[in-house]
Every structure is written in structure tokens, then in C-alpha cells.
């Protein structure tokens, strides 16, 4: 399966020989607890009988027969392994749809996610056509690796509106005659058609596009926005607003549009970072616009045949999202299981799969002789691939294909023909599934992790902001204040590391170098910059801390301590900047940028809650007693420290508060907007929330 990564079966077959006789015991794992007996029999035959016509395994496979668990019974009336064929692609589409619809309508399955389709590739045209057909008939398809991102309406609409803003450029672009641009210009033409329809339906959008187009046509100097910010401004108009309004408690298929827009913000932000684009200037406008649409998007767009494309959102913790049938590659399905598996790609055949490149590497750097006969490797890998596919099925396995007897790629292909012909076709018998009890897909029992700063605090500040940037992963553009704080924190961390290494004397000579290196790293990761005045202020904060707070850092015990506290249904994480003290009693210190708050300030109340909980986590992890909790404000030279006493009774109630917030997050309750307009001024969603008009 993973030969393309350099894997070889030799590691398994020769493992026992690496030990002296008697040192290594071989335990045969031959009982299968996943699949029904008839399915196990089928993939046993696949590995033995159906392979014999084409090649011999010889000693290059451990000879074994998989056995079902003793509690599994056989079906009397309906085979667990069958086929669905179609005399044409159209008939095949219809038969697949009718079969899945029958399973759902007759109550045999309770959720479409009990059905999984496995393919050699989900990016092939035939696979995408089947997915589109099923979706047109009301069966949602989850296929994040199908590379259909750029064909989704919401993406075409956003790109079309961007092109319309640069009207003169887009008019010339779609008429470009170069052959290498033909597919791209055709795509942009379709995007512009969608944008024109949206503007016909929404006068406000049309007015905004005209306003921006005139502004950019007559631009002198700089705008105060670039491409990503234009996209955020679009979110204030009806078509995009309805997408952003999506309820995240709905199924993944319903969330696809909003998650694709999140991906698009990251695509545009990465372009701006790569090209150092903060604003659009009259000097560089033509250059950055043409590079975006003719080079950057062309590279990402690719083709179904030549690579490229962008994958859509996929939740790694939920491999079979509720409400959708899954389309995935065989490689992607490894380690998974589904009640019903439908295996396609029966055109497939053994190929060398770029083995020439690996052979060159082996010849140049490996001193071992070849282990497997090179003329049979492609057969070994092919058979193992479809063994994995067939063994994903728990209750029902179906092989499916439209029949094609002519051409270079018949279906079923030569390798599948014998097995396919041995199976009964569902539509020849219209089998009943009354005997079957298709179990729900097993839910993930992984606990999610939540942190005070990035989760609890952000959600309480504004749940809409949390939804967009934390839950959905939209790219944040206005991150200046965050960048300032990160720069100060990272450089103070460098100071602490030097102190812990007993290298205090080296700090004055290295401090500004650390500061500059941290700044450059943050610029690359955050795609943002600080004005010289802000950078100088950040450096002043750091120097103030080192030069005036020796009493604080001279007894430092640990710095940047990662904390974790398992709750009943989630994990609470945190990080404390400093633990100081000697013996079994310590103090914890957290550094805060910005101005020192006044007593009773809401931010100060929240910071105390954070430290109280951190005290509990530190005591559990370090087996110490925390005596005092301190906040340190480097901006305040005279009185930088705010001190709290630990309150054990208060900690329990605070953890209950945090738990309530986590439960709201997990229920996807993201409707509460902040009433603090100063928060909105720094938020990219301010246009969507109508806190500011996009002009």
C-alpha cells in the first residue's frame, strides 16, 4: 500500500530473522472481528484464487487465511457480496441512486454515512460525475479530496466578483488567445457569468462592485485593503451572508460552502504573504492582479488529469460525517470500517507507479539486493490495495461499474473480471435486506482539547468571531495587536531560557537579536507587520522587564510550562509563562501586554479566573503548592505586578463556568455577537456583522 513512501514487505517477512532463535515469538492474528463471514471468504479468494491467473505470491506474502469471529452468522436469503452493473453510464448512475434511496426509504439504513464508496482516485471525471448525479438527486456526498473546490458555486462567485472589480483587466483576460490559458480563461468566463447574475439580483452588490472598480481604475497612491479584505467585504451582501449564516450544527454537506470560503481566505492571504501585498497601490496594481489570476490561481487550479486542485474541508476526527455518503480513495480508507462498502474503479490495472524513481534511489544509496521480483511488484501492490478496499466492509460489499467492452480501458478490467462475473447483480434479483441490521457508524470517542486563551476567552468575547476564526479557520488579516503581544512574549521567553541555562550575562548582547529574529518569524507566520513605533514600544517593554525585574526572574524554576487537565468530556489546556520559587511552594506569573487595567476591569476579572485555574493545573502537574498568582505588565515601569491569592473554592466554580462554555462550543452555539465595538474595529468580520459598511 505504501511502497510510494519507500515501504517494503521485506520488513515484515524478515523481522523474525533479526533475532536469535527463541527470542522472537510469532503470533498469528487471523481472526477478523469486522467483516461478515461471506465478505471474509470473498477477500480470501481475492488474495488466493483470483490472483493465481495473473501471478504467484511465492514467499513474498505470509500465507494465511482470515477467519470470521465465532459469533458471526451467515445470511440465508441475500448474499453479503454482490455487484451493481449498468449497461451505460446513465443507467449505472440511476441504479446506484435507486439502490441507496431504497436502503434509506425502506429503513435499512438510518444515515447516509453508513454507505462508503471507495475509488482508486476521487479526482477522476467519472467519480465526480457520479457525485454530482447523486447530489442532484438529493443524496449529499462527502468527498473532500475530489479536487472540486474551484468548481463549487460559492468559490466561482467570489472569484467572479473579484474579477468584476478589476473590470478592464478581466475583459482582456477572458479574450486572451494563448493556448496555455484556454482552460483558465474559460473558467473565469463562467465565474464572471455567476457574478453578473448575483449583481442582477442584488443592487447593493452591484453598486459596491462599481464603486470599487471606479476607485481602482482611478487609483492614486494606495488603498487600505488588498484581495482578502475585498473578500471579507463581500460577506456583507446577501448571497455570501446567507452562506456565512450557516448553522454549524447542520451536516457537513450543508457546511461545505462556508468552509470553502474559509479556505479561500487562506488561499488569498497566502498569496498576499508570498508577494508582500498589504494594500493595492497604483504602481503595483497591474502586476499583483495579473500574477494572482494568471499564475497563482492557474497553478492551484491545475487539471483533473495533470494534478493541481485544492482539497475541501475534512474533519479528521469524523471520517464519516452524518448525512452524507462518503467518497474516498482506497488509501484514505485504510484503518476505517463501514456497514456498506461500494467499490468502484474496476477499470484499474497493475502499474509501475513511478517505481523507476525509487529504483534509482535504491541503486544509488542501498547496498541490499532487490528483495521482490520487479516484474511482480505491481501485481503485489494492486492486490493488496483492493484487499484493503474489500476488508473495509462490515455487513455488505458491492462491486460496481458501468459495463464497457471496447477501448483501452474495459470495465470491469481484466484483473476484476473473474471475481465480478462470480457475483450476483442486485438488479437481477432485487434482494430484500430484511435479514440485515446495518449498525450506525461508530462515533469518535476522542476528547477535544480547549485552552483558556484561544477558546474560552475568545468565545466569551464574541462567539461569532470564534466561529469564523477558531472553528472554521478563516484567515485573520487584522492581527496587529496579537502580533505585538506575541513578539513581547517570545522575546521574554528567550530571556527566561538564557536564565535557566545560567547565561544571564549573555542576555544584554543578544536581546535585540532575539527580538529581531522573533519579529521576522512572526511576520512570515502571521502575514502582518508592526509600524516602527510599535516595534520600538515592544522592544522597550522587553528591556524594561529584564532591567527592572530581577527580583521576579532570579528565582525562576520553569518557563512556558504546558498544562493539561482531563475533564469528563474534554481536555482543558493552558500555558503558564513562569513558575518561580524554591521547595514545595511556588508562584505562577503570566505576562500581559497592553496597559495595566484598573481594579474591577472585566479583563482583570477574567485574567484572575485564568490564573486560578492554572494554579490547579500546576499543582497537579508539578506536585507543588501554589501560593500566589501574579500578572506582569512590561508596559508599566513603576508598578508592573498585580497579585492575587489562590482561592481553591473559587477554582471549582470557575472550572464549571469553563465547562459550560465548552459545551456551548460543542453544541455550535455561535449566535452571540459582542457589544464592545472596540473589538469589532479589529475584526475582519465587521462588514458581515454590519458594524461598518464596505465602502
What this model shows, in words?
- The structure is a single chain.
- Strand 13 and strand 14 form a beta hairpin.
- The two termini are 54 Å apart.
- The longest helix has 23 residues.
- 33% of the residues are buried.
- The protein is 46% helix and 12% strand.
- It has three domains: 192 residues, Rossmann fold; 153 residues, no CATH class; 239 residues, Lambda Exonuclease, Chain A (Alpha-Beta Complex).
- Helix 21 packs antiparallel against helix 22.
- The model has no long low-confidence stretch (mean pLDDT 90).
- The protein is an alpha/beta fold.
- The chain has a six-stranded parallel sheet with strand order 3-8-7-4-6-5. Strands 9, 10, 11, 12, 13 and 14 form a six-stranded mixed sheet that branches.
- The chain has 27 helices and 14 strands.
CATH class of the largest domain: Alpha Beta
Task: Name the strands of the widest sheet in spatial order.
Answer: 3-8-7-4-6-5
User: Sheet with the most strands?
Assistant: 6 strands, parallel
Q: How does the overall form come out from the CA principal axes? A: globular
Number of strands: 14
CATH architecture of the largest domain: Alpha-Beta Complex
Organism: Peribacillus asahii
Domain UvrD-like helicase C-terminal: 27-400
Pfam families: PDDEXK_1, UvrD_C
InterPro entries: DNA_helicase_UvrD-like_C, DNA_helicase_UvrD/REP, P-loop_NTPase, PDDEXK-like_dom_sf, PDDEXK_AddAB-type
Write the SSE topology.
Layout: H1 10-13, E1 31-32, H2 37-47, H3 49-52, E2 67-68, E3 81-86, H4 89-105, E4 115-119, H5 125-136, E5 141-142, H6 153-165, H7 167-174, H8 182-201, H9 203-217, H10 227-234, H11 238-244, H12 252-274, H13 285-301, E6 325-329, H14 330-333, E7 338-343, H15 355-365, H16 377-390, E8 393-402, H17 417-421, H18 426-429, E9 448-451, H19 452-461, H20 463-471, H21 480-500, H22 507-526, H23 532-548, H24 550-553, E10 556-566, E11 570-580, E12 585-591, H25 602-622, E13 625-632, E14 641-645, H26 648-666, H27 677-681
Parallel strand pairs: 1-2, 3-8, 4-6, 4-7, 5-6, 7-8, 9-11, 12-13
Antiparallel strand pairs: 10-11, 11-12, 13-14
Helix pairs in contact: 2-16, 6-8, 6-12, 8-9, 10-12, 19-20, 19-26, 21-22, 21-23, 25-26
Organism: Peribacillus asahii
GO molecular function, one term: DNA binding
Keywords: ATP-binding, DNA damage, DNA repair, DNA-binding, Exonuclease, Helicase, Hydrolase, Nuclease, Nucleotide-binding, Plasmid
Amino acid at each position: 500500500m505504501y511502497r510510494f513512501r519507500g515501504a517494503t514487505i521485506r520488513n515484515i517477512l524478515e523481522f523474525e530473522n533479526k533475532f536469535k532463535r527463541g527470542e522472537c515469538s510469532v503470533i498469528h492474528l487471523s481472526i477478523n472481528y469486522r467483516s461478515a463471514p461471506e465478505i471474509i471468504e470473498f477477500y480470501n479468494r481475492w488474495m488466493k484464487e483470483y490472483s493465481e491467473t495473473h501471478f504467484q505470491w511465492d514467499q513474498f506474502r505470509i500465507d494465511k487465511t482470515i477467519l470470521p469471529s465465532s459469533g458471526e452468522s451467515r445470511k440465508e436469503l441475500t448474499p453479503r457480496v454482490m455487484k451493481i452493473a449498468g449497461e451505460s453510464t446513465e443507467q449505472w448512475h440511476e441504479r446506484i441512486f435507486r439502490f441507496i434511496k431504497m436502503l434509506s426509504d425502506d429503513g435499512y439504513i438510518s444515515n447516509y454515512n453508513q454507505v462508503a464508496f471507495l475509488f482508486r482516485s476521487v479526482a477522476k471525471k467519472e467519480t465526480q460525475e457520479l457525485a454530482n448525479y447523486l447530489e442532484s438527486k438529493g443524496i449529499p456526498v462527502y468527498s473532500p479530496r475530489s479536487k472540486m473546490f474551484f468548481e463549487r458555486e460559492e468559490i466561482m462567485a467570489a472569484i467572479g466578483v473579484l474579477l468584476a472589480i478589476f473590470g478592464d483587466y478581466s475583459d482582456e483576460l477572458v479574450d486572451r488567445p494563448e493556448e496555455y490559458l484556454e482552460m483558465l480563461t474559460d473558467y473565469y468566463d463562467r465565474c464572471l457569468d455567476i457574478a453578473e447574475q448575483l449583481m442582477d439580483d442584488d443592487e447593493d452588490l452591484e453598486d459596491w462592485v462599481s464603486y470599487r472598480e471606479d476607485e481602482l481604475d482611478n487609483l492614486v497612491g494606495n488603498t487600505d485593503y488588498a484581495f482578502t479584505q475585498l473578500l471579507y467585504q463581500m460577506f456583507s451582501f446577501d448571497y455570501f451572508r446567507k452562506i456565512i449564516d450557516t448553522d454549524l450544527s447542520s451536516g457537513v454537506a450543508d457546511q461545505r460552502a462556508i468552509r470553502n470560503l474559509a479556505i479561500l481566505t487562506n488561499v488569498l492571504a497566502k498569496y498576499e504573504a508570498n508577494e508582500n501585498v498589504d494594500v493595492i497601490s497604483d504602481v503595483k496594481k497591474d502586476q499583483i492582479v495579473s500574477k494572482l489570476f494568471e499564475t497563482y490561481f492557474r497553478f492551484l487550479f491545475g487539471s483533473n488529469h495533470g494534478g493541481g486542485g485544492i482539497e475541501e474541508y475534512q474533519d479528521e476526527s469524523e471520517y464519516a460525517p452524518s448525512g452524507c455518503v462518503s467518497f474516498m480513495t482506497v488509501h484514505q480508507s485504510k484503518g476505517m470500517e463501514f456497514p456498506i462498502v461500494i467499490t468502484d474503479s474496476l477499470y484499474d490495472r497493475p502499474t509501475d507507479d513511478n517505481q523507476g524513481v525509487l529504483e534509482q534511489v535504491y541503486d544509488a544509496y542501498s547496498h541490499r539486493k532487490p528483495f521482490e521480483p520487479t516484474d511482480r511488484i505491481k501485481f503485489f501492490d494492486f492486490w493488496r490495495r483492493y484487499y484493503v478496499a474489500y476488508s473495509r466492509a462490515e455487513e455488505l460489499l458491492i462491486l460496481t461499474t458501468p459495463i464497457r467492452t471496447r477501448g483501452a480501458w474495459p470495465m470491469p478490467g481484466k484483473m476484476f473480471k473473474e471475481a465480478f462475473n462470480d457475483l450476483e447483480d442486485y438488479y437481477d434479483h432485487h434482494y430484500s435486506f430484511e435479514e440485515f441490521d446495518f449498525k450506525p457508524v461508530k462515533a469518535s470517542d476522542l476528547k477535544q482539547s480547549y485552552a483558556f486563551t484561544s477558546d474560552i476567552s475568545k468565545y466569551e468575547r464574541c462567539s461569532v468571531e470564534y466561529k469564523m476564526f477558531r472553528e472554521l479557520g478563516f484567515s485573520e488579516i487584522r492581527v496587529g495587536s496579537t502580533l505585538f503581544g506575541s513578539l513581547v512574549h517570545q522575546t521574554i521567553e528567550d530571556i527566561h531560557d538564557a536564565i535557566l541555562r545560567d547565561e544571564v550575562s549573555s542576555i544584554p548582547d543578544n536581546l535585540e537579536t532575539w527580538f529581531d529574529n522573533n519579529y521576522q518569524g512572526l511576520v512570515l507566520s502571521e502575514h502582518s507587520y508592526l509600524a516602527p513605533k510599535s516595534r520600538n514600544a515592544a522592544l522597550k517593554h522587553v528591556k524594561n522587564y529584564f532591567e527592572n525585574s530581577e527580583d521576579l526572574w532570579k528565582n525562576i524554576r520553569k518557563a512556558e510550562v504546558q498544562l493539561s487537565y482531563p475533564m469528563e468530556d474534554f481536555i482543558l489546556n493552558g500555558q503558564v509563562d513562569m513558575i518561580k520559587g524554591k521547595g514545595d511552594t511556588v508562584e505562577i506569573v503570566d505576562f500581559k501586554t497592553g496597559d495595566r487595567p484598573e481594579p474591577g476591569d472585566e479583563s482583570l476579572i477574567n485574567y484572575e479566573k485564568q490564573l486560578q485555574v492554572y494554579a490547579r493545573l500546576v499543582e497537579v502537574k508539578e506536585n507543588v503548592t501554589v501560593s500566589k498568582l501574579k500578572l506582569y505588565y512590561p508596559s508599566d515601569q513603576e508598578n508592573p505586578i498585580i497579585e492575587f491569592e489562590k482561592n481553591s473554592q473559587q477554582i471549582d466554580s470557575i472550572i464549571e463556568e469553563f465547562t459550560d462554555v465548552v459545551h456551548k462550543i460543542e453544541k455550535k452555539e455561535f449566535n452571540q455577537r459582542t457589544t464592545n465595538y472596540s473589538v469589532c474595529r479589529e475584526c475582519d468580520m465587521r462588514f458581515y456583522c454590519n458594524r461598518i459598511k464596505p465602502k
